[in-house]
Structure formats: structure tokens, C-alpha cells
Batch of 2 targets.
Target 1
Amino acid sequence: MPTSPLRTALIAGASGLVGRELLAMLLASPEYERVVALVRRPGGVQHPKLDERVVDFGALPAADPALVADDVFCCLGTTIRVARSQEAFRIVDHDYPLALGRLAKTTGARRFLLISALGADANSTVFYNRVKGETERDLAALGLPALWCLRPSLLDGRREEARPGERIALVVGRVIAPLMGGPLRRYRPVSTKAVARAMLRCALGDGCAAGVVESEEIARLGSA
């Protein structure tokens, strides 16, 4: 039985690869009495704890009592292929998480957890890595009470949309993963369940201190 007051979780990106896993874990967790899922369209999940709210991530309210939460989980993300342009990609992977961070700050959230990416670096010459790094940097500048930026390697999970290149990379990654030791360990594919479990453990104080969480640590936390 939980020994501390039950919490409220707010999750954005619950229909995504990691978000689906995390939502199920939050709903099953005895530490949370209410789970607010911000979605662009109804997800079809039914649960007594779940409060699903259709929102425009580009116009999140500055404050809304219904969106007050102890822990905010940001699982938002897309790809250039899906977004169709760098500008559209940046909106989803930078602007939306930052808007969620501002909401969390305004409503008094105690913990904010972001799915970033391996190689995130605001000074990178690689567009994808640079946007991820800028998102981490700009969220940190908000002064949130506690911020975790999880940087998983290639995600190993079932996607709804076809990504042939990523599928090939996963097959190769699974084969050579046992050979990737030492500094290469962080490049091993990491399961979506492991990422979701690591996020939850960090939020509940059973993971690691706030800050950057690299992929090998995510895998360790997610397998425990």
C-alpha cells in the first residue's frame, strides 16, 4: 500500500510508441489515483482513473485546474518523414514540449519527465539532435522543480506506421547488441517498455536523480 498521498499524473503523447506503454503503467500503478491524458483525438482507452482531454498542443491553456498534476510525462515526438518539414518537426518536438513545460510550471507540477533522444545537443550540426538539445535546454531554463531528460537509443517496439529504414536498423541492432559493450552500450536498441518503466521509476523516486538519463541507464532501470 502507498505510504504517501496518491498522485495525479499528466501525460502527453499517450498514443505514441512509449506513451502507450507508460499510460498502461500509470493506470495500473497504485501510487496514482488520477491520470490525465492530453490527446489530439480520443484514444479509445477506458479506465476509472483516466481523464482523457482532447487539446490543441499549440494553444494549451496558461493554467487549468483540471490539468493540475504532481508528475508530468512528455512523450511527444515525430519524425521528419511524418512531419514533412523541419519547421513542422520542430513544432512537435520543441514547441509542444515547451508549452507543456510552461503549463507544468504554472500549475505547480513537482516533476517533469521528457523523452528526448540519444545525442541530443543544442549545438549539434545534425538538425534532429539540435532540436532535441534545444528542447532540453529550454525546458531547463523554465526552472521546473525537477526535470528528467531521458535519451533512449533506437526504440524497439511496435509502431503503427511503417518505417523501413528503422526496421532494418532494429534487426541489425538486435543482432550486434551483445557485442556492444563499454561506451557502445548506450547505442543498443532499448525497448519501449524499458523507457516507460524507467520514466515511472524516476518519477516515483526509485530511479535516478533528476537530470539527463542516458540510454544504458534507461535500459538498466527498465529491466529492474
Note: Strands lie at 7-12, 32-39, 50-54, 71-74, 111-115, 147-151, 155-156, 190-191, 211-214.
Target 2
Amino acid sequence: MVDPRTGQMIAAAPLVRTGNRSLVDFVKSLVDPLLAVGCLLGSTVAWGYPIGPAELILAVITFSLIYPASIPFRQRIRGLIRHIAGSWALVVALLLLFGLAIDMIRIFDSNVLATWFFATPLAQTVTHWISPFIVPRLIAMRGEQVAIVIGANTLGRTMARQLAADPFAKTRVAAFFDDRETPRLGHVTEAPICGRIDRVADYVRANRTDQIFIALPMAAQPRILKLLDSLRDTTASIYFVPDIFMLDIIQGRVDTMVGLPVVAVCETPFHGTTGVIKRLSDLCISAAAVVLTAPIMLLVALAIKLTMPGPVLFKQRRYGLDGQEIMVWKFRTMKVQENGPEIRQATKDDDRITPLGRFLRRTSLDELPQFFNVLQGRMSVVGPRPHAVAHNEMYRKLIKGYMIRHKVKPGITGLAQISGARGETDTLDKMEMRIRYDLEYLRNWSLRLDLWIVYRTVLQAFRDPNAY
């Protein structure tokens, strides 16, 4: 997964979302956006103003920017404060930027906004701080759940460890069952091995068992069917844990289609409400960027016209969503306009780049016209960077999973760009690293991650050594 503070990849188990999430997960996703909305409405009333249409619209926009909340409930107070403050600061910056761009900020009283900006992270911090003490006690009122795991393999043992580590689960793994001999199993510490799989039904009848997790590989289908048949006369809840560690999961989730259960292993993160949220954030950020940078773009266009013959904009065919060709705009920085079947990447001290073009590329000002591509719906503000069609056709044959990055619209900036994978990819290893970051972005997308990438991009705009 991706550390949102550094943008670096860290090891984690594959993430699978379920179509029917637990009540605790659902409440966790609502807490932070509801607190932000509550603080806004409370601040308005506290300063003696009525709650009108403007406040309600702002509340809806704020809720959309934060939902679903992804700040974990279990972490140290210092990290919690830094996490909440950073996330809220990005949301506030986006709201202020958009408000100033369309001249809507004057509608709201400055005292109300100031109170809201400070009250929201305070309320979120207090709520997150006390929740690990309160929520487990509320869950404990239903009593501890006792579970067994079928399969003492990596998947089964990971399941047991995560259940034990999560105070919100309140589940104790009492036993493992596996057909393998002890020397093959190794040293299993999470729970005792209580026999072979054919002994599960007898164990469940003789011992309290609330949940059964089947963590066998998919190749063990005959054994799984036999096990399920032997458990028909028990009352335990039975869950099948698919062995997804062997797969390269992209936005994995369990869902239903035409009444049948399906498991998504490669899906876009922008389906349903998340697609709407992504598009709204793209429109807000790109509209604000166009308004704020319009004078700069006019100056750049004039400078290009005065220093070199030919068009101001460089248009190049690139691959967009689902591998469809799109036309991407940039300020022209080279003496040539390559857009054919063979395109040479820009290199350091490239003689094709003009002196003005070198400055534009180093400061990323040449990318500004792509905000118009975002408004057109061809691109996103954040996403995998689009490559020239010629480069795509080459790398799709060399890098496994290369075309998966086209499950989303290409972006002006991305996780790879803020993580040091920008610039010339003169070796296959460099392109593979860029693709790894692109796929991590697809696996772990959230609006907060998008805002963090935008923030880091702005900070690095004038000091990226790979921009040439």
C-alpha cells in the first residue's frame, strides 16, 4: 500500500472491499465527513447565522471530499494528529482555492470559516482518540466470537493474526485444521493445530464455534465441497477466504452481478459514487488552476511565439481510459514535433529542447494546458502519466501488467512522479518502477491520496532533478 505522508510503497496484504460492508466499517467511513459537516453547521449557528442554501452546498461538497474516511482509528496520538491535520489541510486548501477562483468565499463569514477550520480537526482527533476505548466495549456487549481456520497456510495464519490484532473484530481463533503433517506446517503460533480437515465437523459439534474461515487454495475444491457438506447440520457462520495472494489484485472486491456472486480481481477504482467524486474533484481543481494560472499561460504562449517559429501548443497522440487514443496538449518546448510511430524520449541536455523549453520543462509550466484536457474529460488531475502511443506499444510487450494503468484516465501528475520516477526511462527497470507506482495508485486510491499527490507536486514543481 502507499504511505500518504511520503508517497512511498509499503508492504501490505491485498485489499478487498466487500459489497456488503460490516456496520463498524460503514460507521468508520462516515465519522470524519459527518464531523466536518456538523462542525460547519455548528459554527454557523454559533455565530448567529441561519443555515441557508450556501451552507448546505458547502456541507455536501465537504462530505464528498472526505467520504469515505480512511484515517485509521488505531494509532498513536502524535501520528493521529499529523494524519488528521494533513488530511484536513488538503481539504481546506482545495475549498479555499475553489472558493477564491469562483469568488464564492465572500458569501461566508470569516469567523464562521475560521471556527470551522479549527473545530473540525479538533473534533476528529478527540473522536479518534476515544473510539478505541469506547467502540470495542460496545462491540463486547455482544460477547466474544470464537472462530476456527481451515488451512494453516500463509493465508490462514494471516487471517488469524489480523483478527487477533483488531480490537473491533472481538474474535478469537481457537484452532487450525490442516491435512499436512507437522514437519510441513512448521511452527504455527497463532492457534493450536487440532487435526485434519475431516475432523472439523466433529470439533464444531463438541466445541463452541461461531465462525469458520476456509483458507484453502482454490485447487482444493473437492475437499472444500466435502467439508461444506459435513457442516450442514451446524450453526456456525462459514466464510470462504479466497487465496488472492497469488494474484495481482487491483481494486479487489466482492459483489453481485445479475444475482450471482462475483469476485473482482482487476477493476477501476472509479465506479459508482467514487467515479462521481473523482470527476467533481477534477473539475474543481482544474477550473481553479486554469483561473489562477491564466496570466502565466498567456505569458508563456507569448514567449514561445516570440522565440521560435511554429505553433505554441504541442499536441501528441497518447493512450487514455481503456486504451483509447486521446490528444494531449502541452506548451511546445522542442524545435521538432514528433508524433509518429517512433518517438525519442527527451534526455538530459537534449539538443531538441530550446532554452525557453528547458525552463518550462524544469518548472513543469509546459504541463499547464493539460488542465484543459481535464475539463474536456480526457484526463484527470492525478493518475498514471500518459505515454506516447509509440512508447505504449513497445512497453506493453515488455512489462507484465503495463496496460492495467489504463483502467483510469491518465493524469497531469501521479504517485510515480512525486516518488522519484519522473523523467527519462532509459532502462527497462526505470519504466517498471514507474508502472509499479501506477498500479499501487490504482490499488489504494482515495481522494485524500489524490490531494496529497497534488500537494507534493506543487512543492516539487521547481526542484525536481528529473524534470528536463
Note: The domain at 145-264 is CATH 3.40.50.720 (Rossmann fold).
